[in-house]
Amino acid sequence: LEGKTSFIIYLLSIIAQLSVLSVGYDLGASSGALLLVKDAMHLSTTWQQLVMAGPLPIAVIISIIAAKISDKFGRRKTIMASSVSYLVGSIVTGSAVNQYMLLCGRFMVGFGFGKQNVI
């Protein structure tokens, strides 16, 4: 039983580390993509800052209330909602045709970040 328990603990630790890695990957990939997107969408400096920093305040706000959401609906549903908002936000960001759609997608990614990091 001890060997099985330690395996599960290691597995859960790896999964938790991957969720944090996805946040770092998103921020890193977004900064590289911004070099191309700013010219294609004619983003001003203010819009570039909003697109890059936009998910972070959303994540802070959501992380404050994510524990209550998890208590009400359960961890599994909260984690699934986090994954869905992260996935949908990434799709919206990747298929954005204007700066508002891009920012909306980034905010949705911020929802996923906030829920993911608390749970």
Describe the structure.
The chain has 119 residues and is an all-alpha fold. It has one domain (2-118). It has helices at 2-40, 45-53, 55-73, 75-94, 99-118. The two termini are 26 Å apart. Helix 2 runs parallel beside helix 5 (99-118), helix 3 (55-73) packs antiparallel against helix 4 and helix 4 packs antiparallel against helix 5 (99-118). Helices cover 90% and strands 0% of the residues.
**Unreliable residue stretches:** none
Span between termini: 26 Å
What's the overall average pLDDT, rounded?
A: 85
User: Sheet with the most strands?
Assistant: none
Helix/strand order: HHHHH
Q: What percent of residues adopt helix (DSSP H or I)?
A: over 70%
Q: What's the alpha carbon Rg, rounded to whole Å? A: 16 Å
What is the number of strand segments? 0
The total number of structural domains is: 1
Which word captures the global form?
elongated
**In percent, how much strand structure appears in the residues?**
under 5%
How many individual helices?
5
Sheet/helix structural class: mainly alpha
Protein name: Major facilitator superfamily (MFS) profile domain-containing protein
Family: Belongs to the major facilitator superfamily. Sugar transporter (TC 2.A.1.1) family.
Main location: membrane
InterPro entries: MFS_dom, MFS_sugar_transport-like, MFS_trans_sf, Myo-inositol_Transporter, Sugar_transporter_CS
